[in-house]
Design goal:
Order of helices and strands: HHHHHHEHEEHEEH
Distance between the termini: 30 Å
Helix content: 55-70%
Largest sheet: 5 strands, mixed
Shape: elongated
């Protein structure tokens, strides 16, 4: 039955009951007797309560839909409002769920294009750092060495300091270029790339330990890149924002999926609130959507923060992606 007619029926029932009460054997004297006032008061309360209950039952699914509208996040897909009620309400909920399917598909396609453009730009910048800036600094370093060999003793020490500064700058540029373009990922595979990444983040103030299982199934280039970028972002957050001293990076088989975990002992992250997740975490969620993976970011057992990415293996990848884009 349409919502309009249901509400009309509810109110009609209430009005008919009120009319029956007035036309019934109950009479009102002048002045009003206490028993008559009590009967009318009880009847009025019953009518009001019945009206409220009937409207609450009829409009209940709309409240659920309103809550879903305020809490829906396209980066956490496939959370849908249960179709409840009938008539226009059920049709409205179904339309809302269909709209979410379309928005998630469009968001996934847009994110894929954006991330592809980002990777292309990373590749271009890394190549320019390698080919232009890196080679220029290497040439400057050789010229400084040649000048230092011919310079007087009082100048040679200053030139040596300039050489060390130039060498440190060259190493930093190479490090940045490696992060932008993980060549080891293409050359040696995901396991070697994650080990290299762990060693790169290990320093005087941070220790990164890795536990990467052997014999993991092949996931494909896109999944390998997503796993690498999520691990990179997790380590970056631990080093820059969490104040962590120890990070554990694990990659292992978990049933019919491969699971990456990055757990630190830093300040922690509860994931609550609208402003809790920054651009880095939202970027990880967008990458996870591209390969049908599940990403969870929250407090780790014993303190700190844990980033967990679960990537389905084999045919489940295509199934999850197809399911998420409707």
């Amino acid at each position: 039955m349409p919502l309009f007619w249901r509400i009309s029926l509810f109110n009609s029932v209430v009005l008919i009951a009120a009319t029956a009460l007035l036309l019934g054997p109950v009479t009102v004297s002048t002045p009003v007797l206490l028993t008559e006032a009590a009967i009318l008061t009880v009847g009025l309360v019953v009518i009001l309560v019945a009206n409220v209950v009937l409207l609450r039952i009829g409009l209940g699914p709309l409240r659920q839909l309103a809550r879903a509208m305020t809490t829906t996040d396209l980066l956490r897909p496939r959370v849908r409002t249960e179709v409840d009620g009938d008539g226009e309400i059920a049709e409205l909920i179904t339309t809302f769920n269909t709209m979410l399917d379309r928005l998630e598909a469009e968001r996934a396609l847009s994110a894929a294009r954006t991330l592809s453009a980002q990777e292309s730009e990373r590749h271009r910048v890394a190549q320019e750092l390698y080919d232009e800036v890196g080679q220029t600094l290497a040439a400057v370093l050789l010229d400084l060495k040649r000048v230092a060999d011919q310079a007087p003793d009082e100048v040679r020490e200053q030139l040596s300091q300039v050489q060390e500064t130039t060498r440190a700058s060259l190493d930093e540029i190479r490090r940045i270029a490696r992060r932008l373009l993980p060549g080891v990922l293409e050359e040696l595979g995901l396991s070697s790339a994650l080990r290299s990444l762990s060693d790169e983040f290990t320093g005087p103030s941070l220790t990164v330990r890795h536990d990467i299982a052997a014999g993991l199934p092949a996931l494909g280039d896109n999944a390998d890149l997503v796993l690498y970028r999520v691990a990179q972002e997790g380590l970056t957050n631990a080093a820059r924002h969490a104040g962590a001293r120890l990070v554990l990076l694990t990659l292992e088989r978990a049933g019919d999926a491969v699971e990456l975990r990055v757990r630190d002992d830093g300040r922690g992250f509860d994931g609550s609130g609208d402003t809790a997740e920054g651009a880095g975490i939202r970027g990880m969620r967008e990458r996870a959507l591209l390969i049908g993976a599940d990403l969870a970011v929250g407090p780790a057992r014993g303190g700190g923060t844990e980033v967990r990415l679960t990537v389905p293996v084999g045919d489940r990848v295509a199934e999850r992606v197809a399911d998420r884009v409707g």
